[in-house]
Amino acid sequence: MKCLTISLILVLSLFTQTSGFRCKMEPIVLVHGGAGDIPDSRVPLKIAGVKKAASLGYKILRNGGSVLDAVEEAVKSMEDDEAFNAGYGSVLNLDGEVEMDASIMIGANLNSGAVTVVKDIAHPITLARLVMEKTPHVLLAGVGANRFAKDQGVPTVPPGSLVSKYATEALEDFKEHGDNRTEIGDVGTVGAVAIDSKGRLAAATSTGGINGKMVGRSSDTSMIGSGTYADDDVGAVSTTGHGESIARYCLAHTIIYEIKNGSSANVATSKALKGMTAKLHNTAGAITISKSGGLGIDFTSRRMAWAYQIKDEIHFGIEHGQHTKEKAGN
Ligand code: GLY
Question: Which InterPro entries match (predicted)?
Fold first, then answer.
């Protein structure tokens, strides 16, 4: 009898590993609104923005949309929100311009798309998705990315219209003091990861980069494996924080590697972040969903706004150790 039971377990486990069969998962959309030294005055705006983004993304999944649609929608909502360093409200380069990066990835087939140093587009994440879906390439940069946007009928916004008052002040502060003392001047990025009931995963990330950056600087957010990664056999990750460190550490893929080696999403996320900060002395944050629906949310910065919706509950936080729950709006 014991032998029969063991054989049955072995056959079942072999079947699930080789057939792509997955147990029914609980759909989740998890978002972050950037890791950094967020001042108290910005905390309520960030929390409201991440809750809204998580709920919009979740609504897409609940209404039968794909995980890709869900992460795109969640990120678009934060790109429209001045409280975040992405789309409108992005930080400025040394010439006082907004230059943005974004990337998106599907876990089912590792398809991915990204844009870097793109200007005057309200939703760089949508353009990154178009790169994935309509071109043979993974990453389009600068003038080429903007030309592609025009060819695809992606609307452009008037030059300067993505520049917010807060970003202008942050650049002035940077030029005067030579350091990035505000959260927006430090780092900040938005991102989303999602899993649906079939265990399909996607990830998306978008940023204005780093305040006072050189003209033409590309960030980790445009680099698959650093800012974004998704693989249905492992998990999905979106990162935020000091871009040059995240890129050197390949942070998103390091988290994936830790999960592959047996860590939970939670342990993998924390371990990779601590490893990066210990080695490179800069901070970051990440959100992760593993293929089994496990969550990882952590940051080595002072704060990181995050939120997710599962069923009718919104979970959110911004401080270390904070995990607040409330009933979702609808
Ligand atoms: N992680 C965003 C940036 O550095 O640009």
Answer: ASRGL1_meta (IPR033844), Ntn_hydrolases_N (IPR029055), Peptidase_T2 (IPR000246)
